[in-house]
Amino acid sequence: MTTEDTDGGIESINAVTLTTQSMANSVEFYRSLGFELESGGPQAEFTTFRVGDQHLNIIATPEEPCWWGRIIFWVADVDQTYSRALDAGWLPEAPPHDADWGERYFHVSDPDGHELSFARRMTE
C-alpha cells in the first residue's frame, strides 16, 4: 500500500443501514436491547440509533430483506446484554460462550432476520 492509497482515505464506519418491513417492531427490538434512539421512531420511514460515536440506521422497505451478514457490537457485559434480550422476549441463538479467538459473544436476529452479535474481548 502506498501513501497515495491512504491519503484522504477511510477513517471509520459512521453508520450501518438495515432494512425493515416494520419500523415499529425494529424500534421496539433495538430500544429493548439498550440502543439509544437519536431520530425517527416507530412511525418513521428512517430511524437512527446512536452506537457509541457511530450510528445504526433502519429504513422501512416494502420488500422482504434477505440475509446479508452480521453486525458485531462490542458491549461492556455480554451476559448482561444476553439477559436483557431474554427479558425482552427475544430468542438468542445460544447462551453467551467463550470463543477460541478470544471473545465472549452471543447472536440474536432482529425482527427482519438481520443477525447481530454482541461481544467483548476476553481479558487474559
Query: Which sequence of SSEs, written as H and E, runs from N to C?
Result: HEHEEEEHEEE
Count of DSSP strands: 8
For CATH, the homologous superfamily is named as 2,3-Dihydroxybiphenyl 1,2-Dioxygenase, domain 1
Gyration radius over CA: 16 Å
Spatial sequence of strands, sheet with the most strands: 1-4-3-2
Beta-strand percent range: 35-45%
Number of helices: 3
Distance between the termini: 33 Å
Q: What percent of residues adopt helix (DSSP H or I)?
A: 10-25%
Main sheet: strands, sense, barrel: 4 strands, mixed
Number of discrete domains: 1
Mean model confidence by pLDDT: 87
Briefly note the CATH topology name. 2,3-Dihydroxybiphenyl 1,2-Dioxygenase, domain 1
Low-confidence stretches: none
The global form is globular
Mind telling me the CATH class? Alpha Beta
CATH architecture: Roll
Class from secondary-structure proportions: alpha/beta
Please characterize this protein's 3D structure.
With 124 residues, this protein is an alpha/beta fold. It has one domain (14-121): 2,3-Dihydroxybiphenyl 1,2-Dioxygenase, domain 1. It is 19% helix and 35% strand. It is built from three helices and eight strands; from the N terminus they run αβαββββαβββ. The protein has a four-stranded mixed β-sheet with strand order 1-4-3-2, with helices on one face. Strands 5-8-7-6 form a four-stranded mixed β-sheet, covered by helices on one side. A hairpin with a 2-residue loop joins strand 3 (46-51) and strand 4 (54-60). The relative contact order is 0.20. The mean pLDDT is 87.
